[in-house]
Inverse folding.
């Protein structure tokens, strides 16, 4: 594919790097001299230092022959205007805009895909990608599972992929995978192991050891039990603290209270503003898990006033979370869970670690990129949400060719989870699963056929219409494309 990216910030650069690794033809436009120089020195692609809202610049970048245009600048309006400008001359080009303003959700409310919207085009934009909603939904999914580890949710299936670090006292420490099902009786599979910065696709002879982060596919209701085998004890999250009352923090609180209102015996919820109702519609409906009290901690006084008016059920504290006296005075150390969602990733990590050392049971931290996510996990943060990676994954899902329904990167970034719909007249149809072998190793880990989902066995045969989820290393794209007739 040929892709033009406007904006060489962290999202644009990370997206371009991934696409270049996958052998796509990428052009990058950036007006900032320092960013453009960095991209030119670190990426093997055409980099233009210019404004993206110029048709001449877009044409210099190759928009006339491009398959897609992705706008990731810091301005929602600029992203949308650039897409509109391209649409006026090149309507066939796929156009994706990153936006953070909730009002734009109302303009394009129909359809959903991985935290993005599709439906009636606004200014020619095919897909809006909203990072705050995607991040908040990831946090809510983690809370649903007791914040014991990262959880990846797949649409239209009861299975989820959870990752958790093996504790030294757990029954997983020293377990050879061929003996895995003698311990874990339910239907599940260990799909990936992160060991000392390296991602391993395991086999039957692989031995789990203390400190490994294992990625396990299992049904939603059984994942928590498997986490306990890894040495993680479940505890009801009755008192939850949210540090940061910005966009993400507010959406997390809305998600928690929206589900609490569904409980029997709770009072009738007040009518929400139309904008807010539209946003909440895009969250996966979660089961409430013993939420009793929510505390929101925000340093900005005016923001606290707005939060107190919006969330009368919550305790809103206008305080500096880094003040040790405040932590002791307000008994913040007795929280079951702390979610650090400020705009400063270092503060989020430090706060999460500090409060855990003071007695908070579990911690979720939002960070900017995958590099900080690795550091935060190694320092003891239970769940880390890398926001830029979430946005890039969402964009990549839209850029994939026909038949590809989603793409997620996990582990050290060299492992892809790909959701594929098997179309008629492809090589895979009516072939047994044993016919699918990758030179770099890979695994078909889940099949969704109609209303049934299952982990495929040796007698599974690919059928047209099956939705499959496979895990593979980078470098497998050509083999996957050939077998399943998709474009990666």
């Amino acid at each position: 594919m040929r892709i033009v990216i406007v904006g060489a910030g962290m999202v644009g650069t990370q997206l371009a790097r991934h696409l270049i690794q996958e052998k796509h033809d990428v052009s990058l436009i950036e007006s900032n001299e320092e960013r453009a120089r960095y991209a030119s020195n670190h990426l093997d692609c055409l980099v233009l230092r210019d404004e993206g809202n110029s048709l001449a610049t877009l044409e210099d970048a190759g928009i006339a022959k491009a398959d897609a245009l992705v706008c990731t600048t810091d301005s929602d309006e600029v992203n949308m205007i650039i897409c509109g400008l391209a649409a006026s001359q090149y309507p066939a080009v796929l156009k994706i805009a990153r936006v953070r303003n909730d009002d734009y959700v109302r303009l394009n409310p129909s359809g959903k895909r991985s935290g993005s919207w599709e439906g009636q085009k606004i200014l020619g934009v095919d897909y809006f990608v909203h990072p705050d909603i995607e991040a908040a939904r990831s946090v809510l999914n983690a809370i649903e599972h007791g914040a014991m580890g990262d959880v990846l949710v797949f649409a239209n299936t009861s299975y989820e992929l959870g990752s958790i670090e093996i504790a030294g006292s757990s029954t997983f420490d020293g377990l050879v995978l061929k003996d895995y099902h003698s311990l874990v009786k339910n239907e599940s599979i260990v799909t990936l192991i992160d060991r000392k910065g390296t991602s391993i696709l395991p086999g039957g002879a692989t031995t789990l050891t203390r400190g490994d982060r294992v990625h396990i596919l299992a049904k939603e209701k059984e994942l928590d039990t498997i986490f306990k085998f890894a040495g993680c004890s479940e505890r009801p999250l009755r008192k939850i603290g949210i540090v940061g009352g910005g966009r993400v923090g507010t959406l997390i609180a809305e998600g928690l209270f929206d589900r609490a209102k569904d409980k029997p015996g709770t009072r009738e919820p007040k009518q929400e503003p139309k904008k807010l109702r539209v946003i909440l519609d895009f969250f996966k409906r979660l089961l409430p898990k013993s939420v009793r009290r929510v505390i929101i901690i925000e340093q900005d006084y005016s923001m606290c006033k707005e939060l107190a008016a919006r969330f009368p059920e919550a305790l809103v504290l206008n305080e500096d979370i880094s003040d040790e006296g405040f932590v002791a005075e307000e008994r913040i150390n007795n929280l079951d869970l702390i979610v650090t969602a400020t705009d400063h990733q270092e503060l989020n990590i430090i706060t999460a670690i500090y409060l855990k050392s003071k007695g908070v049971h579990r911690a979720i931290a939002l960070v900017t990129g995958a590099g900080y996510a690795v550091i935060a996990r190694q320092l003891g943060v239970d769940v880390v949400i890398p926001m830029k990676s979430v946005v890039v994954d969402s964009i990549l899902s839209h850029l994939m060719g026909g038949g590809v329904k989603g793409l997620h990167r996990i582990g050290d970034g060299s492992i892809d989870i790909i959701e594929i719909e098997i179309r008629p007249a492809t090589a895979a149809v009516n072939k047994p699963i044993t016919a699918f072998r990758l030179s770099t190793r890979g695994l078909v880990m889940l099949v969704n056929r109609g209303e049934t989902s299952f982990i495929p066995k040796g007698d599974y045969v690919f059928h047209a219409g099956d939705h499959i989820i496979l895990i593979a290393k980078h470098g497998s794209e050509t083999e996957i494309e050939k077998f399943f007739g998709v474009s990666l």
User: Anything to note?
Assistant: Confidence is low (pLDDT under 50) at residues 109-119, 259-291.
